Automatic annotation (TrEMBL):
It comes from Streptomyces cupreus. PANTHER family: DNA-BINDING TRANSCRIPTIONAL ACTIVATOR DEVR_DOSR. CDD domains: LuxR_C_like. Residues 149-214 form the HTH luxR-type domain. One of its GO terms (biological process) is phosphorelay signal transduction system. This is Response regulator transcription factor. The lineage of its organism: Bacteria, Bacillati, Actinomycetota, Actinomycetes, Kitasatosporales. GO terms for molecular function: DNA binding. The keyword Glycosyltransferase does not apply. Residues 4-120 form the Response regulatory domain.
């Protein structure tokens, strides 16, 4: 029997892709995307069995306030945090807020589904490799951890960064071209260069990598008003 779900994430493309995949596996998805600020109210109103709640910065103070509010108002809702590779503090903060588990943004759909079923059954849902990584970091903290998001950001030109943000926002080639004031063929070329530089094979993979590493938050928002075409 399918689970009554909500997928709540700032990044519409990721949320809708995950929601579609879960629907194909027989689950009932109530909503696919919403800004983090309104996540708690949306979940409280809809009262799903399980909520997948996206976050880009799990160690940031107050990031799990929506989880606290959901569990206070709807304690029967199991909340799974969907985020990047977490620090030990990030995992601890998620569970302290009342989350039932933590799932990486780039987890395979089978792993996401296993976590959902565990959460609905009242079990803790964290992949063993995440716990191993957390314990390893606690025992052997890195003096200067590698900032993958910053490294990837430095590989891209400012225009390619804007293209990546637009891809993560779910814009197709036509919308990217209109928003940046360039020809669709030029937009396609930019997208292909971004995929090549990031070492991924699809727009969805690029969006997932950017979200997981925090690159999207470093890049900042892009204008959504159409620009005049370049001469």
């Amino acid at each position: 029997m399918g689970v009554r779900l909500m997928v709540v994430d700032d990044h519409r493309l990721l949320a809708e892709a995950l929601a579609s995949a879960l629907k194909l596996r027989g689950h009932r998805v109530l909503a696919a995307a919403a800004p983090a600020a309104g996540a708690a109210e949306l979940v409280i109103t809809r009262a799903p069995e399980v909520c997948l709640l996206g976050t880009a910065t799990p160690a940031e103070p107050g990031m799990f306030d929506p989880v606290v509010k959901i569990k206070r108002e709807r304690p029967q809702v199991a909340v799974l945090v969907l985020g990047p590779v977490p620090s030990p503090r990030g995992i601890a903060a998620a569970f302290a807020a009342g989350a039932s588990g933590y799932v990486r943004h780039d987890e395979r759909i089978e792993g996401v589904e296993r976590a959902i079923m565990k959460a609905r059954a009242g079990e803790a849902a964290v992949a063993p490799q995440l716990l191993q990584g957390a314990f390893s970091e606690l025992l052997n903290p890195a003096a200067q951890p590698d900032d993958e998001g910053q490294r990837l950001l430095q590989m891209l030109t400012p225009r390619e960064v804007e293209v990546l943000v637009r891809v993560a926002d779910g814009e197709d080639t036509r919308l990217i071209a209109a928003g940046m004031g360039i020809a669709p063929s030029t937009a396609r070329t930019h997208v292909q260069r971004v995929l090549m530089k990031l070492g991924v094979g699809s727009r969805l993979e690029a969006a997932a990598l950017a979200a997981r590493t925090g690159l999207l938050d470093r890049a900042g928002p892009v204008p959504h008003e159409p620009r005049p075409p370049e001469l």
